[in-house]
Amino acid sequence: MFQPTGPHLFLPTASSTAEPLRAAASVVFNLPGYQVLSACDLPLGGRRVTAVANSTEAACPDCGVISARVHQRTRQKVKDLGVGGKDIELIVIKPRFLCIELACSRRTFTQVTSQLPFRARCTARLKAAAVEAVLDEGMPIWAACARHRLGWATINAAIIADTVTIPDPDQVPVRALGIDEHRFARAKWFKHPETAQWCRVEPWMSTFVNAATGHILGVVDGRSSANITRWLRARSQAWLEGLEVVAIDPSSAFRNAVAQVLPAVEISVDHWHVVRLGNQMLTEVRQRVTREVLGRRGRKQDSVWAHRMLLLRAGDRLTDAGLHRLEQVLEDEDFEQVAAAWAVKERLRAMLAAQDIPAAQNARIDFEMAVAAADMAETDKLATTVATWWTEIKVFVRTHVTNARTESVNTGIKHIKRTGRGFRNQRNYQSRILGTSIRQTRRRRRIPHQQGLHAQR
User: Fold this and answer.
1) Domain locations in the chain?
2) What are the start and end residues of every segment in region (Disordered) (predicted)?
3) Phi, psi angles (nearest 5°) of residue 90
């Protein structure tokens, strides 16, 4: 709708832009760069607000010459945040300026502001609120669409545009790097076109995390050594030289990739996964011995089955009542192999809890003696794994660099995946992960720890 220029239309003057005080309606509406001309209630609810930009001149997008000559004024309806618990119908009066440069091919151009860019149909603060709802609150896009009255494509494009502001990994100094994988979607089956055989495909993704802050630096497809190597080689030489330790799970693919690109960087194996291997060994021994002794799987009336979770708990953290129940389970002569496996598991935990390398080596001797006394295939397999990763275990004992932050990030990634009800577009999936991570990191940095405050994840 066009509206001619006339004396009845109030517009700000050049001196009004420098005036520090604003009208009461403009203060309440609080749209940066705009002032309210009128406001009224609508018959069916909501409010209609008419606003105009404070600036009375603009630069031509082609030649850059500043012009204050108005060709015509238009009224444009745009979407904006609600005020006072009611939806807003925002009417913006936009001037179309005449280019005063005779050599310029463009004759007219529309006013553009930070809140209403070129061809915008909603304010920038409305898009920012929608992005905040998705990335900060963990809200699915369809719920953000219902809250802010925007389309799915609009909010998704705003989220992808927000990821452009994420700093490049080379600009983030990292001393300890964590690498871990997670499954992007469910496993799928497809028929091979040449062999006509059904093949199983598990879509995995690998995540690179700053082990000190939990900031996600990158997400790549797959979990093979080639994908890890490709991402590491893409980093700058200065960034690679700043790395000191890389924390990984007991994965040969990750270890080979790091050793190939970063031969001088130490590799630390995450102790939680090593303890998990010990618990898995104990569970396998318990299940095998139960079948051999009872001829069936365990039931609730069997003491060793009823206390299966007690066997996996840390022995030095049990209460007196827990220790008494555990002694009753381990004293059963029919399940002496379970007691031997439990002793191996506890020696493994003591080795990982050592404070220095000599203490860890002494604890390893006790561990190997317990393995020799147990004399079982399951314990021998665990001892072989410890021997294979002994160098990385010593790095963990000395540096105490773990994948705890990386595992925490994976929990957040799973929440993003559940909220999105599955992502078919990997670009959208990665933008959610990176956008959520950087905003959480920025919130933690803004909170002063000197005041006793801590960021809430």
Assistant:
1) 2-121, 169-270+403-451, 271-399
2) 434-457
3) -95, 125
Residue at 17: amino acid letter: T
Query: 169-270+403-451: which CATH number, 3.30.420, 3.40.50, 3.30.1340, 3.40.30?
Result: 3.30.420
Provide CB contacts within 8 A for 375, sequence distance 6+: none
Q: With left for phi above 0 and alpha for psi between -120 and 50, is residue 111 left, alpha or beta?
A: beta
Structure-block tokens of residue 254? 């990750």
Look up residue 246 and give its two tokens: 């890389």
- What pTM was estimated for this model as a whole? 0.76
172 Cβ contact partners less than 8 Å away, ≥ 6 residues apart: 210, 215, 217
Quick one: CA torsion of 315, 320, 321, 327, rounded to 10 degrees?
A: 50
Task: Report the pLDDT averaged over residues 260-276.
Answer: 94
**Cα 387–chain centre separation:** 34
Q: Which of these, 26, 21, 109, lies nearest to 65 by C-alpha position?
A: 109
Residue 22 has phi, psi (to 5 degrees) of -115, 160
Please tell me the distance from the alpha carbon of residue 348 to that of residue 370, in angstroms, as a whole number. 10
pLDDT tens, residue by residue, 67-93: 999 999 989 999 999 887 788 899 999
Largest CA distance in the chain: 103
pLDDT tens-digit readout, 144-173: 999 999 999 999 999 888 877 777 888 888
| Neighbouring residues of 13: CB distance < 8 A, sequence distance ≥ 6 | 56
Q: Residue 352 carries which side chain, given as an amino acid letter?
A: L
Query: How many other C-beta atoms can be found within 10 angstroms of the C-beta atom of residue 110?
Result: 16
Residue 447 makes CB contacts below 8 A (sequence gap 6+) with: 453, 454, 455
The residues near 321 (Cβ < 8 Å, ≥ 6 apart) are: none
